[in-house]
Amino acid sequence: MIEMQDVYKKYPNGVQAVDGINIRIKAGEFVYVVGPSGAGKSTFIKMMYREEKPTSGSIVIDGVNLSKLKESKVPLLRRNIGVVFQDFKLLPQLTVYENVAFALEVIEESPKNIKKRVMEVLDLVKLKHKARHLPNELSGGEQQRISIARSIVNKPKVMIADEPTGNLDPDTSWEIMNIFEEINEKGTTIVMATHNREIVNTIKKRVIAIENGKIARDQAEGDYGYEA
Ligand code: ADP
Ligand code: ADP
């Protein structure tokens, strides 16, 4: 589902953020990306949804070669990849319903299908009753659940999450993880950068550790592996 070959990324300021990465992630896998701050985790996952372009190397997502992808096709790619951020990135002036519906309105789904699908994903994250609320009327955990709902409304094959529990308390973080597990069990491939040792060591998944832009470790059912 995700394949990187000899991927390098040097930012214009000269920082070599990713320094020769080769990786294969199969459909349906759940992968944690761990490592120290500044190791290159965000850069690594941003390249998967074309937020950043590699300086060299090839990245193929679900058969699409991102290096050859025209700028005009990037929105199409994004539709097939759900992205969840640490800081939610909901649109503050839109209701919960509208935030989630947005991605479907862009592709001109029928209003009937939009409503059905939005309610389906709000139900999955247990927030149907908050559909009319604005994001700032919700707790952090609720906002993250809405951002997860938004990310899967298009039924993407791949979900990318960059420290999705980074701003949440432990109980809320576990609730969020339950939702990710449920989504993964339905077949979606998940790649999640995280600093949450407890979660990585409890909900065992493949662990890819990045240090200095390189893969330092790649283990099935791995540990977090860093001291506090
Ligand atoms: P991590 O997610 O592991 O903290 P990042 O991928 O954010 O690591 O950063 C890796 C390195 O690249 C760091 O040295 C960081 O300062 C640098 N970096 C990240 N984004 C940019 C950018 N847009 N421009 C220049 N340097 C950047
Ligand atoms: P159900 O079919 O589960 O009863 P409802 O149709 O009652 O769902 O809608 C649940 C919530 O979603 C309500 O708060 C409703 O106002 C909101 N909602 C439904 N459709 C829209 C829409 N098109 N735009 C904005 N909010 C909507």
TrEMBL record:
It is a peripheral membrane protein. Coiled coil: none annotated. It holds the Pfam family ABC_tran. It comes from the Bacteria. The keyword Cell division applies. Keywords: ATP-binding, Cell cycle, Cell division, Cell membrane, Membrane, Nucleotide-binding. It is found in: Cell membrane. SUPFAM superfamilies: P-loop containing nucleoside triphosphate hydrolases. Homodimer. Forms a membrane-associated complex with FtsX. Part of the ABC transporter FtsEX involved in cellular division. Belongs to the ABC transporter superfamily. This is Cell division ATP-binding protein FtsE. It comes from Sutcliffiella horikoshii.
